[in-house]
Write a structure and sequence with these properties.
single chain; mainly alpha; three-stranded antiparallel beta sheet; 15 helices; 3 strands; globular
Length: about 425
């Protein structure tokens, strides 16, 4: 088969990224205003966003400000209503889907498997739900994925790579400024960047000390300065305003707030339960005008359970078609779980698995793509089956109006899902 000219390939890639971004935004934004009232953790973050607008004072101090600033921007643009609270997450969710496509395109150098990878993330129901709620996860996720894309592009670029590196560093600062959960990923990406640079300078004596370490240190400094800059709204509070001298001490106040004693929660779960979907979460379950509205945070069984089997097979070496792409995807997936194994956390929740689920989609695509055309055909059918499962669960993940009987129990496959 004759290979398409480079300009044509670039056009197809740009068109695919645009269609994925617009299509996913339309999916995420459809009926995003339901329910009209705040629900689940919006009860924490919407008031915090309002405080940023009114300059009232510190609210929800256990987390940094960037994600809450995004919610505040939505309120300023679209009003203090459910659309204003949630549209920033939908927009950043669509940006995340385009970023996944970009990352997969650099991994596979082919548009079709990259599109299928992005669609797997779209059909991951936990991602869909997080893209429709005013929480901190989507700003963090978008920044982490874009940062990964920038650093990968910088490593590949023969010229202008440093600009991509600095863009990635800024985005990692914004990711950490959304939620501290991004810190391990920032460390991983900087380590990977340093490793890539050391390989590029392998023939130079003393290159690690002269070039690699200073370059990585500069990127780290850019991220730290960007992170600190995300606190600028706090300097305008009418009471307990931030000051330059208090900025460092405030980080310890945040740490203390996060590490304080937490009461046991009926939806708490351990890291090993998340891939198996043993304890999903009801974000919403209420009766409105004689009918139910519900949002069940549940993963896509095809992706979660099927992907877990694929990851196990790929890691075991039963089918030895190893590739750098597969090893990298597996490494990130294992790392994302190790974060929760190694870092002490009093209570865990199923939505902590969101980042791991994205990595799992890359594992699925990498493993099947490594098997050539037949593997890509299997990936196509796997993605189609994931889409069918997404449609099946759609009423219970999108706050649709349901009959006031036991119809909703049809989506509850296990006793632990209640």
């Amino acid at each position: 088969m004759t290979e398409r000219p480079a300009p044509q390939r670039r056009f197809h890639a740009l068109l695919a990224a645009l269609l994925l971004g617009l299509g996913s935004f339309a999916l995420f934004a459809w009926r995003i205003g339901q329910p009209a009232a705040v629900y689940f953790d919006e009860t924490h973050y919407v008031p915090a966003a309002r405080a940023l607008i009114t300059h009232g004072g510190p609210v929800n101090i256990e987390h940094p400000l960037f994600a809450k600033t995004m919610i505040a921007a939505g309120i300023l643009l679209f009003g203090d209503n459910s659309l204003g609270w949630r549209l920033p997450s939908a927009f950043l969710g669509s940006i995340s889907i385009a970023a996944v496509f970009w990352i997969a395109l650099m991994m596979f150098q082919k548009v079709r498997p990259a599109v299928l990878t992005a669609l797997l993330v779209v059909f991951d129901q936990t991602f869909f739900i997080q893209a429709r709620i005013a929480m901190l996860e989507m700003p963090m996720t978008a920044c982490v994925l874009l940062a990964a894309g920038c650093l990968m592009q910088g490593a590949r670029a023969s010229a202008g790579g440093r600009r991509w590196d600095y863009a990635g560093a800024v985005l990692l600062g914004l990711a950490v400024g959304s939620k501290w959960l991004a810190i391990p990923y920032a460390a991983l990406f900087f380590a990977a960047s340093g490793w890539s640079k050391s390989r590029a300078h392998a023939h130079e004596a003393g290159a690690i000390i002269d070039h690699v370490l200073p370059d990585v240190a500069k990127l780290g400094l850019v991220s730290v300065l960007t992170y600190l800059a995300t606190f600028w709204p706090a300097f305008f509070y009418t009471h307990d305003a931030m000051t330059p001298g208090h900025l460092l001490g405030f980080q310890f106040e945040m740490l203390h707030a996060q590490s304080g004693h937490m009461q046991a929660h009926p939806y708490q779960s351990d890291w090993w339960q998340w891939p198996l979907m043993l304890r999903p979460m009801w974000y919403l379950f209420e009766k409105v005008n004689g009918r139910y509205e519900a949002v069940l945070l549940i993963g896509n069984p095809v992706i979660y359970w099927g992907g877990l089997i694929i990851a196990a097979v790929a890691a075991s070496g039963w089918l030895r078609r190893r590739s750098v792409q597969l090893q990298a995807a597996l490494g990130v997936y294992v790392f994302s779980l190790a974060v929760w194994i190694l870092i002490p956390k009093q209570i865990g929740f199923f939505y902590y698995y969101n980042s791991s689920a994205i990595a799992l989609c890359l594992v699925i695509a990498s493993f099947l793509e490594s098997h050539g055309r037949r593997g890509v055909r299997v990936l196509t059918w796997f993605t189609a089956l994931s889409g069918a499962m997404f449609i099946y669960f759609y009423p219970i993940i999108s706050a649709q109006s349901l009959p006031a009987d036991d119809t909703w129990t049809g989506w509850v496959w296990m006793k632990s899902w209640y």
